[in-house]
Design goal:
The structure holds two protein chains of two kinds.
Chain A: H1 2-22, H2 31-59, H3 65-70, H4 81-84, H5 90-111, H6 117-145, H7 149-162, H8 174-181, H9 192-205, H10 227-242
Helix pairs in contact in A: 1-2, 1-8, 2-6, 5-6, 5-7, 5-9
Chain B: H1 3-13, H2 25-28, E1 31-36, E2 42-46, H3 55-69, E3 75-79, H4 92-100, E4 103-104, E5 130-134, E6 142-147, E7 153-157
The chains are: A mainly alpha, B alpha/beta.
């Protein structure tokens, strides 16, 4: 069950990230950004499909990627809380993309050497995509942080909102301990230092400081979420649940 | 190899990519193999460009249709991820076809220790006085550029 749980965590992160980013489609500040966020969402969705399909096979209960995405309730989702946070303004979306993107990129780099061949292949593929996502978030962070007084203020505010939710990304527990021991997974705690080094140097380059006043909400990996996830799932799942036996769309 | 086997391989390799129809799936490097067993079963192996590439479903259908039209009866399509697709697998003749279609081919994706940001050559007039308009384009594999010499916008396949 631990392996299934771990794959669900990875898949749910990507799925919920994809769903949130897609909310920007048709609403981004400029057309180019609309395409950028949609493309990043599509990469995340592709990763989610590979991971959830694998999770379903590992579980062996006949659930495929769609069953896992559309027919689980909020308490059964194991994504980190950071990805479910509302998009907020554009600055908040960019800060989310930066914080989560650097984490995901570091994680996939390590998982590309996983003892599990199938996960290693998914991670090696996905890593090429996340490198581009991080680069996109980096350019916007520089532009907005070192931009106008208003864009700088918005970025600072976004950092205050998002930063507390980054701590959960690096929590070890019995699932990651067990799987790291046989080389299949990575202890999240090992990613904290490289993550901080990358994100903080980038923030400083953008004339921003990492927040110091902090709290650390947690629970996503055990199915405890913020209220916003339920609304997101309601929107994502309602059509599929209304027509559960439909085979053509 | 039987005559029919050779024909099946040929028609599968000739299937056009749905989003880059100037290239075949073989030229793009996403067709990884066509195996034909003695009892006539055909296994076609493909790899996605990007994890979420929506064209993959269409490609899977198209190769099955092509193989069946060439006489195959049992066709199976496998998707592999390893090694991950790279734009370095796009052949030189394929790059010429892209340029002829107004799409700037990718630069080298691997092997450079330092990330070099070279300018992209305009596929229409050959000028290197170009600028990136958008880091993302109409498909996952492309970005949008503009040429300052001939003033034309063009698509560029990102090195990946």
């Amino acid at each position: 069950m631990t392996w299934f749980t771990y794959l669900l965590r990875l898949g749910d992160d990507a799925l919920i990230m994809a769903q949130r980013l897609s909310e920007w489609v048709g609403r981004a500040p400029v057309l180019e950004e609309d395409m950028a966020l949609a493309n990043i969402a599509l990469d995340q969705l592709g990763q989610a499909r590979l991971l959830l399909s694998y999770a379903g096979e590992v579980e062996g209960a006949g659930r495929d990627e769609d069953a896992l995405a559309y027919f689980r309730s909020d308490r059964e989702f194991l994504n980190c809380q950071l990805v479910e946070l509302p998009n907020g303004d554009f600055a908040q979306t960019i800060v989310k993309l930066l914080c989560f993107g650097v984490y995901q990129d570091l994680l996939y780099q390590r998982l590309a050497a996983s003892a599990d061949e199938r996960l290693a292949a998914i991670a090696a593929k996905a890593r090429k995509e996340t490198a581009y996502h991080v680069d996109h978030a980096r350019l916007w962070t520089l532009r907005l942080g070192d931009g106008t007084p208003e864009s700088h203020r918005r970025m600072r505010q976004a950092l205050e909102e998002v930063w507390p939710y980054t701590h959960e990304l690096f929590e070890d527990d019995e699932v990651t301990d067990e799987l790291a021991a046989d080389g299949r997974a990575v202890r999240p705690g090992e990613l904290r230092q490289p993550w901080r080094a990358t994100v903080e140097s980038l923030l400083r380059e953008a004339t921003l400081e990492p927040p110091t006043e902090d709290w650390a909400p947690t629970g996503g990996r055990r199915g405890i979420h913020t209220e916003t996830l339920s609304y997101l799932l309601a929107q994502m799942q309602s059509v599929r649940r209304a027509y559960p036996t439909a085979t053509r769309w | 190899m039987s005559e029919q086997g050779a024909r099946i391989r040929k028609v599968v390799a000739a299937v056009p990519d749905p989003e880059l129809p100037v290239l075949t799936i073989a030229e793009l490097g996403i067709l990884r193999g066509v195996e034909i067993t003695d009892d006539g079963g055909v296994t076609i192996t493909v790899t996605p460009t990007y994890s979420g590439c929506p064209a993959l479903e269409t490609i899977r259908r198209d190769v099955v249709d092509a193989a069946r039209a060439a006489g195959a009866e049992r066709v199976e399509v496998r998707t592999v991820l390893n090694p991950p697709w790279s734009t370095d697998w796009i052949s030189e003749p394929a790059r010429r076809k892209l340029r002829a279609a107004g799409i700037a081919p990718p630069g080298p994706a691997a092997g450079t220790a330092v990330a070099l940001r070279l300018s992209v050559r305009c596929p229409r007039c050959g000028s290197v006085d170009t600028e990136q308009l958008s880091r993302f384009g109409p498909t996952a594999c492309k970005a949008l550029w503009r040429c300052h010499t001939c003033q034309e916008p063009f698509e560029h396949i990102k090195a990946f």
